[in-house]
Design a protein that fits this description.
150 residues, mainly alpha, two-stranded antiparallel ribbon, rod-shaped
Length: 150
């Protein structure tokens, strides 16, 4: 009779490397890397540095992990792109609102300038009438003839 097989306790070098790569991916995704600078984006280069392996090792020996890294990196890029897109949309809406406000203010300014020109012309006409020698002042309502109103 043969003896029952014992479970495999030794791990291969490739398995250890794959485990190190997976742990590096998780640490970088969570923003708590041990080797690379925190806040660095997830890329094959950053994972390779964090795991202590070469990029070629990830590409050649662990293509599924390389694909996982690319997908996660693309996801981050898409999220950043979508954030910028929504920010741009908000800024465009704000620009349209401010542009309308500017056009309205400009119209008011033109109306006020026109009204001011009319008032200046009327003021000049009234001054000419008052300065005419034929115009005499009327006494005030209080009866004081020194207070002449024009």
């Amino acid at each position: 009779m043969s003896q029952p097989e014992e479970p495999k306790l030794t791990t291969t070098r490739g398995e250890l490397t794959a485990k190190a790569i997976r742990q590096a991916i998780v640490r970088i995704e969570k923003g708590r890397p041990k080797v690379v600078k925190p806040g660095r984006k997830l890329s094959i280069q950053s994972v390779a540095e964090e795991a202590g392996v070469s990029r070629a090792t990830i590409h050649n020996n662990h293509p599924s992990l390389a694909e996982r890294i690319r997908e996660a990196g693309n996801k981050a890029a898409r999220l950043q792109r979508d954030e910028k897109k929504s920010e741009l949309k908000e800024l465009r809406a704000k620009y349209r609102e401010l542009r309308q406000e500017y056009v309205h203010a400009r119209e008011l300014h033109q109306d006020m300038a026109s009204e001011m020109a009319s008032l200046v012309a009327e003021n000049q006409r009234l001054r000419a009438i008052v300065e005419n020698e034929k115009v005499i002042g009327l006494p005030s309502k209080k009866g004081n003839s020194n207070n002449v109103r024009y």
